[in-house]
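User: Could you walk me through two proteins back to back? I'd like the raw sequence and the structure tokens for each, with a short line separating them so I can tell where one ends and the next begins.

Assistant: Of course. Protein one, sequence then structure:
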Amino acid sequence: MLNESFNKFYADALDATIKEVEQYQNENDLWKIVPGTLNCGGNLVLHIAGNLKYFFGTVLGDTGYVRERDNEFSLKNIPKEELIEHIAEAKLVVQTVINNLSETDMQKDYPPNERHQGGSIGNQVIRLLAHLNYHLGQLNYHRRIITI
């Protein structure tokens, strides 16, 4: 039951991320920095996908995904369709891993790493959802400002 809810919340947020990317009328606008912000829409999308593919895929799902976090913020001019593919891949990884987590797994300790220390897997699933929605809000703001 809980896994169903998590899958729905993640799917809704990732589908909204794809919708945001699709709403950029000019692909180049994804890569423009809005005054007063640090990241453009394209880099936010790369970060959302990389973050989920790493924390769900590599850490919990043993997918072998190798994260290059610096690239999430430095790469530019990735085609819109490729950005959407990254999000679709992340969605699949998240859903697969969540479907394989039991309630007992959710209580287990999340492996500590260089960015997040301790806590249960369940707490990390919630934290990652909050992180996703935080950056989705930034992406929405960026798109609205750029496409006015």
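----
Protein two, same layout:
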Amino acid sequence: MSFKRKLAYCLMFLLLLGAAHWLYTDTLIERWRFYRFEPEAWKSARPEDRYYMARYLVDKHMLTGKSRAEVLSELGDPSVSATSFLLYNLGPERGSLFRIDDDWLELTFDAASKGVINTRIRPD
């Protein structure tokens, strides 16, 4: 077998290995496992396993309009709390080579209605 052919096989193998790693660790498989919301699973999950559950909550606008008491009963105690917002830690940020910062589920409350007016996932 020629050197060029061996090199081509090695590069294809590394490419397939990288693709398999990418699919398994960060994206599709994790999303298939966790892209739904179950209150009991949320409360018992590690912060890094909550990311796609939080993404589901944001995408489906499931928390919009809910009161602070309703949110606390559904999600439990937040990592950070203030009168106008709640923050839930979602573990190390996704899609970064160096996972230095954390992702957070941020819920913003309206002062007048005291309901959730905005939900988003944001980094530190």
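The two ends are 52 Å apart (CA to CA).

Let me know if you want the two compared in more detail.
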